[in-house]
Structure formats: C-alpha cells, structure tokens
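chain below, 584 aa
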Amino acid sequence: MGEQTPQAARPVGRVLGTADATPLQFWVAVAPEAYLQLDDVVVTQRALPDREPVTVAGIVTSVRARHEGATFDSDVFAIADGTLPAQIQEAAEITTTRVQPEVYVPPAPGALAHRAEGEARASALYFDRMRAKVPIGFGRDGCPMYLNAEFLDGSRGAHVSISGISGVATKTSFATFLLYSLFRCGVLGNETSNTRALIFNVKGEDLLFLDHPNARLDEATTAAYARLGLAAGPFPDVRVHAPPRLGDASGTPDVSSRLAGVDTFYWTLAEFCADRLLPYVFADADDERQQYTMVVHAVTAHLAKTARPADGGIVIESRRLGSYADLVDHIVEQLSDDETRAAWAGNAVGLGTVNAFARRLIASKKDLSRLIRGDLATRRPHQINTAESGQVTVVDLHNLPDRAQRFVVGVTLRTEFERKEKAGTAKPLLFVVLDELNKYAPREGTSPIKEVLLDIAERGRSLGVVLIGAQQTASEVERRIVANSAIRVVGRLDPAEASRPEYGFLPPAQRQRALLATPGTMFVSQPEIPVPLCVEFPFPAWATRPAEAGQPPAAAARSIVQRIDPFAVVGAGLPGLSDDDIPF
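prediction:
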C-alpha cells in the first residue's frame, strides 16, 4: 500500500473483537486519545503464515459512541455525576475499499488500525492506479479527491449522472467545476484546445458569464484551487448563443444582462424543411399508441421533397411561405382538403389522426415562430456549431417556452451527434451538459429527443460524445441512460427520492447523509472505488450569476469583441472596453 508518513503510522485504534470482522466490513475501537470521523480512510494489516502480510484499507461509513458499564438509560446521569463507574467508548464501521495482495481474509481482532495519509491514502482510494486524474474537490480530511479520467473520456467508460434537489444540490455548479477541472488539469494533453463543451442554460442567465471572473473570489478559494493543482479563474473561451427576441425582426438576442458577445440562433424555413426538423416540434414524450406520429413522418418527408428556398422563405407547389405561421397554416390547409390529404399524410391515415396532428401543430405556432424564420438573413451566422465555436458553447434557453426548449435541445443534439458520426473519430471530445434530464428523457414514453439521448448514452462513448446529465430525480430518467453513466454524483436528496433503488450504490449511512448534505457537498461514485467518495468542491472562480460577474480578462474580452455579430443590434458598451475597441 506504499510507505506511510510518521503521522499516518500513529494508530487510531484496534480492530474490534466484539463485532464480526469480515474481509468487506469491520469495526475499529477508537483509542481514547484519537478520533475517527465519517469518510476517514483507515488501514490495518493481517499477518498470514508463510506469506506476506495482507493490508486492508477502507472508509469510515458509520461512527458510534456508548457508555460501557451502563445498564439503564438513566445510568447516564449517575455516570456524569461520578457515582457509577463507566467509560466512553467510540467505534467506527469500516467498509473495505482495497485489499492488497488480494487475499480476502478478515482483519484480526486487536490489530492496530491507522488513519491512512499520503501514499497509503492514495493507495486505499486507488488514486495510485489512475493514469489520468481529474481533481473534483476535497475529502473530509482536507486532501484532494480525484476522478479517473478514463471513465470520463470514453477510454473505459463515459457519461455522468448528477442528482439532487433543485437549488440546494448545486448540480450545475458541480458540472461546470468538473468541466473546468478537466480542461485545466492537463489530462487531455494536446487535445485540450480541441475539446469542446456544449451547455444548455435553462435557469435565468446564470451561465452566460462563465468567461467572467467571480467578483466574490477570495484568497482562501484561490489557495484551494492551487491545492488541487488548478489556477482559479474563468473559462477562457466561451461563446454564448441566445434566441431572437419575441416580435423583433432584427434578430437581436433575447438576453438582458449580457450586452455583447452573444450570437443569435435560429433556423430558416428552408433549413427546417430540408433538414427534416418537423419531428422535433412534437418532442414531448408521447404514448406509443398515438398514431399521429405517422402523419409527422409523412409530412416531414413531403416537405423535404417539395419545399424550395425563395427569398428567405420557401415555395411549396407554387405557393410562397414567409413565416413559420404561414407554413403551419399551409400544412393544415392541405391536410383538410380531401384531394391533397393523401399526398401529404398517406392513404391509410384516418381523419381523426390527421386532426390530432393538426391541433398539435397549430399549438406550436406561438412557441416556435421566433425560432423558425423566413425574414432574417440567411448569410449571417445563425446555427449552433461547437466545431466552429469556442471551447465552451452556452445555449441560452431560459426565455423560451417548454416546447421551444425541447425543439432547440433536440435539433442541436441531433446535429452535433450526426457531425461526430460523420467525422468517424472519438477525438476531439464533446461534453454535453444538460439539466432537467428527466424532462428530455423520461422513463415512460418516447420522443425524438429521448431517442437522441439514448443514442448518445449507448454509442456516444465510441464517438467522443460524453453526456453530463443533471436531474432532480434519477428515478424518473430513462433507465438505460442512467445505467450507461460510469460516474454517478448525488447531492442533497429528497427523502422519498433517496429510498428509490436508483441510489442503491450509496451505502445506507451515505443515503441518510444525502438528506442533510449542504451545498457544495457531493457523493461521487466511480467504478474503481467500491464506496462513493464524499467531496466538497470549491466555490466557482467564474461568475455563476450576473451579480457576480467581474471584468473579463483582456484575452477573453478581445475574443468577445471579435465575435460581435455585425448584423445584430448592440446595446451598451462592453465593460472594460472603450468604444474604440469595437470594430465598427
């Protein structure tokens, strides 16, 4: 297990002889002058005849204290007064993490137990076997904790599932810290500059300032990053995309707190038809018994076959359509006509099924009209493409209604996944951060988005697409997506949710502690380590909300200016830049 430091060599107790000791779990009686807390790493040895000693290491998963010599509950008062002799004894439950050599024998009662530190701690937690380590925070002992990058980059596994109560579990903060650590710790080597991250922002404008330093960053937090081997600072290369403002014909991005460095995204009518995007209008999960999906695919194929670009809009059968509302009205009109219905929906589809499709399509006009346009210039950049973007691409969805959010997520993920399929190589990697995963890939029903996410979960590893999914309730997410996540992270949990079998990887004590976890505390499970690690990650060094946004570094500010869309309406000046810095 490696040499131990003198401090680590000092015993903290002995293996308990009044409780069963097994190769996988045992108890340690804590010495009077020592203590053990939850998550401490403990190591002990067992001598064997005719072979080298066996070293057993584990993590403290429970601690108890009791009066020895007391019989009744009321004896505690007599013992406290000194009229009844008794002594306090503490004991700690140790769950085994590593046995070396792998001879699975129980520790001997009475054997000395030590708090593992230095190399002994690294060996007990398998850190010594990790060829590429990603810092993820600190343990209860204040020492760094690591994630095996091979279970994150697809080498031996991929995908991360993060669960916890909204607003308390800090799921998004941990996801962004994980990305920051991955990009900054050096494990990606020469691929660092090519690796991309795609983040969907669904709550406020909190993630629009990742390239701004956090104004609340202090020396203690900077020192904490240094102990993890990281420099404290913002993400250096971020590109933000936002939808156009509602009712705005100029294509101004719909954000209020960030006034520069934001690109507008939308799809033209021609792209909507040619790229077969209609199914993503119906991206909410539906019962498989619904028949109108047959109409969806028939109409999608007919649009791809007949629609032709024309002056920003499209022409279908000699009729020019200049907006999404025009397109919807035209489709409904054709489906309502007995003579044209068969050409659009097929002969075998009943009128009731057609009407069900039409009702849902008409309802989408209000939500999608500002995303599917025929009045904005096609020459201006307007599509989300991580290959041509910054290292981190943030897609802002918070101002969009639910249907529009689903459309953007579904189309963007499909486009990025198809691009990776065409590339044919896993490198460079693409990390996708998606909150509210239970909304996009629910356990029941089917939808185009769910199919894309399942494809990413099952084939993404080989194509270099890694999903970092966050959700309040993992029990409501498609099982195959959770099952394919090599890394599972849990923050503060709701009591009812904690009892679900999806959290069976947590020992009973940790499942109980998850009900009390404070913001910044996460339980991280990875395949190599039998017991999830309790981790506290440092305060973000980048702005997590507009009020925290400090002045961006000069290099980041220059990149923001270079990305200003000359076709968009720019509001007030960028903080830290003069009017002379703006290139028009």
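The mean pLDDT is 89. The radius of gyration is 29 Å.
thats it, cya
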